[in-house]
Amino acid sequence: MDTVALKKIDPDFKNEIAEKIGLQEIKPCYACGSCTGVCPVREIVEDFDPRRLIHMIILGMREQVLSSDLIWFCCQCNSCYFVCPQGIRFSRIAAELQRIAMTEGFVDNDFLKRFSPVNDHLLDLCRRTMFEKVKQGLRGPQTIPCWRKNTCKE
Ligand code: SF4
Ligand code: SF4
Question: Where are the chain's structural domains?
């Protein structure tokens, strides 16, 4: 677990993120770890851990979260959303963290340029993961529209 620097704690951080994506999205997390267990990115990037990032948000570790490269690794596959008992969609949290990090200068263009090939790989991983999930029968409102259109038989 990352060190918590008390002086840098922002107790409103969780509210800020929750407000952007819906209050119920973060606070009900009870750290069961199902999201981390099913995440395909976690299998190749050991440090990437959605549960830990959510925990850091709840603790108010704003600066550490927004300056972390790890917030850019979510491939938006929504596998974690399928299994989260609390219906938390980490992909939305990651997208919001990225938006704030960009807006507030926590990330520079050089980083995004360097990250671009990794991002291509992650998007491919995302596509393959979605396909596998759909094949396993996991489809519904969580599945992105093009997958529903091309895979649902009803
Ligand atoms: S699966 Fe949901 S409740 Fe469990 S740790 Fe992940 S976000 Fe929290
Ligand atoms: S949406 Fe992001 S955090 Fe969730 S399983 Fe996919 S890559 Fe992992």
Answer: 6-151
